[in-house]
Amino acid sequence: MQIVYSIEQLQQLRRRWSKPARKRAASEYILDIPELTGAENDRISARINRYRHTCGCITAGVGVAVAAIFPALSYFAGGHAWSTLSPLIGLLYLGLVLSAGLLGRQLGIIWSALRLRQVVTATLREATAIRELQRQYSHTGR
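The structure corresponding to this sequence follows.
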């Protein structure tokens, strides 16, 4: 578990997480940024950890299901029977299903990385704005 205590630490992590070839470690991140409330820190920490640990399983499953069901329904709805299915068509069908799973997995990982970047960027923007307001407020002497 790693605790993030400042905006600067979160900026460093965003730069590190934005490198696509880097394998993400399995550690959990907990935000404890003073500019945010405890509930905000907890909510954002949960979102960051969820997006960091996404493996693409759900989108891979959807890809496999779509690639397996629709071509098969189309084939058999067209009046074809199992006995007319050639080995070549079977191999192409299997390749389609496997490719759809791999593509679905990659799309899920990419989507998750984009969402992670959006969450961290929005958090940094909000925390920086709060910090700036606190500075202005403390300089005015109110």
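Strands lie at 2-4, 29-31.
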